[in-house]
Design goal:
single chain; 264 residues; alpha+beta; Fructose-1,6-Bisphosphatase, Chain A, domain 1; D-Maltodextrin-Binding Protein, domain 2; seven-stranded mixed sheet; five-stranded mixed sheet; 7 helices
Length: 264
């Protein structure tokens, strides 16, 4: 698995260099829409093609759960979960916060995760049971234990706004009970930053597996906790996630006060 990880890191950095170069000459006329406010560009698609081709060589016979659908091949044992450019809206607007996210799912368990933040050249990586790292240096979640001293990250949905009122109630309480909220525009980056202690926690709904798979493993391996909004383990495909350090249980209590009441 260590050799597999090193091969993935090489591939991710090569693909990141492609994204970095395309950012310098990005053609806004080539932006496409998968849905309302759901952007995709030729950069996303080309990056995913490169990742799928490379990962197929690194682990022959493996399957894919990929955002842009470059490959729909599935495996009974190993499946790569890929977001070739998490933060596409940031990318298309020239905002330098976006990342490549790759996770390896072994049957139903996350085995490996890599989040590469392209602009800062920061590569976060983890193998299950082996700890979490940033550019090969060990990382841990923040030691802050009190929510009133925590800085949290979140995201806003870009479609399906039916649950916005209870979500805004959650945000309203956190605005008043923490050091603040940040909306970076990339769940993969939010989770990586939580894993290395820049944020105490992150929460969001309407998420996809490729948004969170690698980052969730990073947080877990860095000593944090990841659950869905019910406090269970259905965060990978359940479309909602709370990740954090020791404040995660306090975040969960606040979120459940509004979310579960309105969604029963």
């Amino acid at each position: 698995m260590q050799q597999l990880l090193q091969d993935v890191i090489v591939l991710v950095k090569e693909t990141g260099e492609f994204i970095r170069q395309e950012a310098l000459k990005f053609d806004h006329s080539k932006i496409e829409y998968k849905g309302k406010n759901d952007l995709v560009s030729y950069v996303d698609k080309e990056a995913e093609k490169r990742l799928v081709a490379g990962l197929s060589e690194i682990l022959p016979g493996s399957g894919f759960i990929a955002e842009e659908g470059t490959s729909t091949q599935k495996s009974d044992t190993y499946n790569w979960i890929i977001d070739p450019l998490d933060g596409t809206t940031n990318f298309t607007h020239g905002l330098p916060i976006y990342a490549i996210s790759i996770a390896l799912l072994k049957r139903n368990e996350l085995a490996l995760g890599v989040v590469y933040e392209v602009n800062k050249d920061e590569c976060f990586h983890a193998i299950k049971g082996g700890g979490a790292f940033l550019n090969h240096m060990p990382i841990k979640v923040s030691p802050i234990k009190s929510l009133d001293k925590a800085l949290l990250a979140t995201g806003f949905p870009y479609y399906n706004f039916e649950q916005m009122q209870q979500y805004l109630s959650i945000i309203n309480e956190f605005m008043q009970t923490t050091h603040g909220l940040r909306r970076m525009g990339s769940a993969a980056v939010d989770l990586a930053y939580t894993a290395c202690g820049r944020f105490e926690g992150f929460f969001e709904y309407n998420l996809n597996a490729w948004d969170v798979a690698a980052g969730a493993l990073l947080v877990s391996e860095a000593g944090g906790k990841v659950t869905d909004f019910k406090g269970g383990s259905d965060f990978l495909f359940g479309r909602e996630l709370i990740a954090g350090n020791a404040t995660q249980s306090q975040m969960l209590t606040t979120i459940q006060k509004y979310w579960l009441k309105e969604n029963q």
